[in-house]
Specification:
- The chain is of the alpha/beta class.
- It folds into five domains: 71 residues, predicted glycosyltransferase like domains (Thrombin, subunit H, Beta Barrel), CATH 2.40.10; 52 residues, no CATH class; 193 residues, 3-Layer(aba) Sandwich (Rossmann fold), CATH 3.40.50; 80 residues, Helicase, Ruva Protein, domain 3 (Orthogonal Bundle); 54 residues, Orthogonal Bundle (Arc Repressor Mutant, subunit A), CATH 1.10.10.
- The strands form five sheets. Strands 1-2-5-4-3 form a five-stranded antiparallel β-sheet, with helices on one face. The chain has a five-stranded parallel β-sheet with strand order 7-10-13-6-14. A two-stranded antiparallel ribbon has the order 8-9.
- Helix 12 crosses helix 14.
- Bound molecules: adenosine-5'-triphosphate (ATP) and magnesium ion.
- Adenosine-5'-triphosphate (ATP) binds next to helix 6 and helix 14.
- Keywords: ATP-binding, Nucleotide-binding, Transcription, Transcription regulation.
- It holds the Pfam family Sigma54_activat.
- This is Sigma-54 factor interaction domain-containing protein.
- It comes from Desulfuromonas versatilis.
Length: 462
């Protein structure tokens, strides 16, 4: 058996019997000595077979990396994508992967930075049910780390954000339910975590559930858990999020998407704090604080019958509204500098700051995706920058003048969108669910469009 090619994740092997599917083999590396692998055959290639390693342990991985690193060509091509790697020595200009191979922490950083790509390539072959199972698994694993200190800082210097910080501090020590409002990416989950971490519950779990990300039929099982055999596929008894969060905090994200049946169950839970697993004979009392968030206008939804009024009042004991990033003045630059330092440090990038044009563009950009959009733009800027300073083009930001002054086309699109939304609402007599269905969007999306275009429910005024 001859190993023709060797990488961190697998090898190309010649002379392996046809029948082998899973195998264990050892190989002698010239400088590192004997290493053992457990591998799975994934395909035949011209008489050889490609095998994938099952999670080698750290010392095997370390030896393997040392062996590969010593043999990597130091020419002008990137060893990952094969394209010209460009002038910057520490990072490939084509694929963006870090190339400072000689640094001692390279392997750890590489595994972290390419995690999403590796996950993505595996997800392509999975169906939605298996993706769901995987997410549950990841959720459970992540829960184990709840006690570790978080690296994230909550950054803000403008008056509105200082006000938000004061509210977080004040409400954290109470046991009140809090409703966190704000556009997508404004930091609602960060706020929820900040409340939990400043509360007496900080040593207990913080459990998050995104109501929009889970299919309607699975939310109940996720929240309340189930007994073995209570439905097809319930192979073992499982605790729900409420039980897992016992003593701590549960964060219900995108609460506006909670289906009506579950709204009733949540309301009942808020009243007695008893969870009854699906298929169970009795219930169990749990002690959880509920924080909820939404980017839709829950108050209008409650007024229009789109969300239960009584549940809205229960959840809304205290409200924190996060301002959109475009309304945070100089914080745009404060945040941009914070993320630049954080990401550049994490990735070992030599990028030092923003060019004057980039700073102007950051201040002028409308940031509809808020802080999350900013993080993505800066990440891209760091990868693309060919010098120490990031330019607006590196971040794909429009030149400031254009961003500040919406073009004729943008205005026209805005106007047309308003007309279509208003017409559809009138055609459906302002029945939101029907109008949303006709437009092919969700109810919360329609509520936010109504808010954006300042459209009021005309039937409510009559
Ligand atoms: N003021 C801030 N300081 C530092 N990081 C922030 C701040 N606001 C948001 N972030 C970061 O931005 C990202 C998005 O924040 P978060 O997930 O809390 O937003 P969200 O409002 O819950 O978004 P969505 O509605 O899309 O779920 C996170 O990585 C968060 O850590
Ligand atoms: Mg969120």
């Amino acid at each position: 058996m001859v190993i023709k090619e060797l990488s961190l994740s697998g090898a190309l092997v010649q002379g392996l019997g046809e029948a082998a599917r899973v195998l264990r083999f050892s190989s002698r590396l010239p400088e590192q000595g004997e290493v053992q692998f457990c591998a799975q055959v994934i395909r035949q290639i011209n008489g050889a077979v490609a095998v994938k390693f099952y999670h080698p342990d750290r010392s095997t991985l370390g030896n393997l990396w040392e062996h590969i690193r010593n043999r990597l060509n130091t020419g002008t091509e990137c060893p990952y994508c094969g394209k010209e790697k460009g002038g910057v020595r520490t990072r490939c200009q084509a694929c963006g992967i870090a190339l400072d191979l000689e640094k001692s922490d390279y392997l750890d950083r590489h595994l972290k930075n390419t995690f999403i790509q590796r996950l993505q390539s595996r997800l392509d072959h999975l169906d939605p049910i298996n993706i769901e199972k995987l997410l549950n698994l990841v959720d459970r694993e992540l829960l184990k780390y709840h006690g570790e200190p978080r690296e994230e800082e909550f950054v803000g210097t403008t008056a509105v954000m200082l006000e938000v910080f004061t509210m977080i501090r004040k409400v954290a020590v109470t046991d009140m339910n809090v409703l966190i409002l704000g556009e997508s990416g404004t930091g609602k989950e960060l706020t929820a975590r900040a409340i939990h971490e400043r509360s007496d519950r900080r040593d207990k779990p913080f459990v998050a559930l995104n109501c929009a990300a889970i299919p309607e039929g699975l939310i109940e099982a996720e929240l309340f858990g189930y007994e073995k055999g209570s439905f097809t596929g319930a192979y073992a008894t499982r605790k729900g999020k409420f039980e897992l969060a016992d003593g701590g905090t549960i964060f219900l994200d995108e609460i506006g998407e909670l289906p009506p049946g579950l709204q009733v169950k949540l309301l009942r839970f808020l009243e007695d704090h008893i969870v009854e697993r699906i298929g169970a004979k009795g219930g169990k009392k749990v002690d959880v604080r509920i924080l909820a968030a939404t980017n839709c206008d829950l108050k209008s939804m409650a007024g229009n019958g789109g969300f239960r009024n009584d549940l809205f009042f229960r959840l809304n004991a205290f409200t924190i509204t996060l301002p959109p990033l475009r309304e945070r003045g100089d914080d745009k630059l404060v945040l941009a500098n914070y993320f630049l330092k954080k990401i550049a440090l994490d990735e070992g990038s030599p990028v030092k700051g923003f060019s004057p044009e980039a700073k102007t563009a950051i201040m002028a950009h409308p940031w509809h995706g808020n802080v999350r959009e900013m993080i993505n733009k800066i990440r891209r800027g760091i990868v693309m920058a060919s010098q120490e300073l990031i330019s607006p083009q590196d971040m794909e930001l429009e030149p400031a003048e254009v961003a500040a002054e919406p073009s004729g086309l943008k205005k026209q699109v805005f106007k047309t969108q308003r007309e279509v939304v208003l017409r559809t609402l009138r055609e459906n007599n302002f029945v939101i669910a029907r109008a949303a269905r006709q437009l092919g969007i969700s109810r919360p999306s329609l509520y936010s469009l109504m808010k954006k275009h300042q459209i009021e429910n005309e039937t409510a005024r009559q």
